[in-house]
Amino acid sequence: MSSGAPRSDEYRIGPLDELAITVFQEEDLSLEKVPVDASGNVLFPLIGLVEAAGKTSRELSLEIANKLAARYLVDPQVLVNVSKSASQIVTVEGQVTRPGRFEIQGQATLLTAIASAQGPTQTAKLDEVLIFRTINDQRYAARFDLQAIRQGWQPDPVIKGNDIVVVGVSNAKSVYRDILSALPGLGSIFIALQSATNNN
User: Fold this and answer.
1) Could you report the per-residue pLDDT of 122-160, keeping only the tens digit for each?
2) CATH T-level assignment (fold) for domain 18-84
3) Which of 157, 112, 96, 108 is nearest to 131 (CA)?
4) The whole model's pTM is what?
5) Which of 10, 28, 43, 103 has the fewest CB atoms lying closer than 10 Å?
6) What's the CATH number for 88-199?
7) Which of 130, 66, 69 is nearest to 95 (CA)?
């Protein structure tokens, strides 16, 4: 297992997202529409450019609060929300009604992505759903049980741009079967594929 693997329930801000930033009891510093530029930065009053891309809302809130506290405010309380996400492309394949590449808006989840492909087929193996994700040129994968997510037994993981979702991998390519057998059961942790295959 890769120690630095991200959890699937984190949404990380990306270029061209739109943020709502609230500084409590500071109306002039509370902004409803703050665009993230193509370089991943936001321009915020008093502190100037702040790098936002790649951070969670909580991480960016803390950074803005620290910068404000350093020179301007005493113990500022900052809340960042992603009000609009840039369009992202997700690939859904395997045992779904309409496999393909789909444009998603906002903070989409696994159920949203599969719904874009008109749902799983009647014969789909719902406990064999893989999400593949590339982070810093490293390929990760995580395995999910769609039925457990639908029933609320497992959280519905956040989908990110360029993710690949494969439903029912046992009847798919042999490479998917190998990855399925290498992953240590179900869970929300993404495992580096090289580590997973080495442990198999």
Assistant:
1) 888 888 898 998 877 788 888 899 999 999 998 898 888
2) wza like fold (3.30.1950)
3) 157
4) 0.58
5) 28
6) 3.10.560.10
7) 130
